[in-house]
Amino acid sequence: MRLNAQNNQFIFLLPVDFVSKDLYSKFQKVLDNNHMPYDNVLDYINSTIKEIIFPNLSFDAKKMTFWKGKQIEYKETSNVFDKFQNELDMTFKAVDSYINYFILVEILIEYYLNNRAQYIPYFSLQILDKHGNLIYTILFKDIILKSISEVRLSYQQQDASEKTFSITFRYNWIDIIWELKDEHKDESKSIFDIPIDSNYRDSQSDFPDKTFGQT
Q1: What is the number of other CB atoms lying within 10 angstroms of the CB of residue 102?
Q2: In 149-190, which ranges are E strands?
Q3: What confidence category does residue 3 fall into, taking pLDDT thresholds of 50, 70 and 90?
Q4: Rounded CA gap, 72 and 62, in Å?
Q5: pLDDT, position 210
Q6: How many angstroms separate the Cα of 47 from the Cα of each of 23, 26, 30, 161?
Q7: DSSP label of 186
Q8: Is the pTM of this model over 0.70?
Q9: Domain 10-57+83-151+161-194 falls in which CATH fold?
Q10: CB neighbours (10 Å) of residue 138?
Q11: Domain boundaries, given as residue ranges, for the chain
Q12: How many CB atoms lie within 10 A of CB 140?
């Protein structure tokens, strides 16, 4: 067992349909003219992914006033999927005179102007153990673009340090699937498939009586 999580034990690749067929052909000429050792433009873009930020999860509470002004907090009733911040941030390395940046700009503009494609279907983030085996898969579904960051070109900067840019997507659904295996069959189990024992909950004294504070 390792006490510290390793941040680089994951696989994330943009899906094949992230790039339209016409742009695959167009950008292949860019790759060939610049002698880039990639089979296609999607492989090239995926090779420059640097970081993925998993969105945070937060819950609000509702308050009710009991005897003598005592305030009690309750779980709110909104959908659990809306408790995740519905944004997915990706950081890319800026390479080859920002060629990958402007390729992504064109891909995103083409997608935005394409009325036949309302959503990018899904992104898949796979988390691995120290041996490279898949532990769980995170699926982000029904994705739309939010923003792409600026890049700054400067004559006075001569250093060769790494430069990055970021893209933020919004998504409508999220699922986290444990890749569980037993001796007889392989099965996947979503973290949202949680059995609820209502009898146990009902037997607990979770809330104080309204006479709280009386003597």
Answers
A1: 12
A2: 164-181, 186-190
A3: low
A4: 8
A5: 47
A6: 18, 19, 16, 18
A7: E
A8: yes
A9: Pnp Oxidase; Chain A (2.30.110)
A10: 19
A11: 10-57+83-151+161-194
A12: 23
